[in-house]
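Table S2 (text version). Query chain:
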Amino acid sequence: MKYFFTADEHYYHNKILQYCNRPFNSIQKMNETLIAHHNNIVGKNDITVHAGDFTLIKNKEMIYKNIINRLNGEHIFLKGSHDYWIPRKDSLQIWENLIFHEGQKYYIVVCHYAMKTWARSHYNSYQLYGHSHGKLDPVGKQHDIGVDNNNFMPVSMDDIVEIMKDRPDNFNLIRK
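Corresponding structure-token output:
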């Protein structure tokens, strides 16, 4: 089982092609490319955390039939600014987890929005976010996991660890 992270897929959002200058000639082509990219790297037993703005469509059954059921792995959905398909009572805004990866422990905080500080940031935990479509510079151990910032693909935990190696410490790191 591996972890993957992504955000801002915007399935079925016609205007996202021009808003973000996405290189697709139709929303159908974008949807199919996102599904193919996901399935090329995410396995059946892997977990993908989607950090919001999965789709504008409100019809949950349609989303499951046309998108989610076609994506490999298990899914954790965080509510973004456009996820009307996720009922408020069922919505998850922040996902925090201690992940054991390659013999190391990593504390990860995922939210649709970038944060100034987050859980365990003073211990150099990682914060993964979306919403900004690659237009917001990370601060410390942060990364924009949105598809516009990551070649329209989910980001693996391997990639996150590699990205964070070159990032500065969080400003509030407690030094021993």
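Notes on Table S2: The first strand starts at residue 3 and ends at 6. The domain at 3-165 is CATH 3.60.21.10 (Purple Acid Phosphatase; chain A, domain 2).
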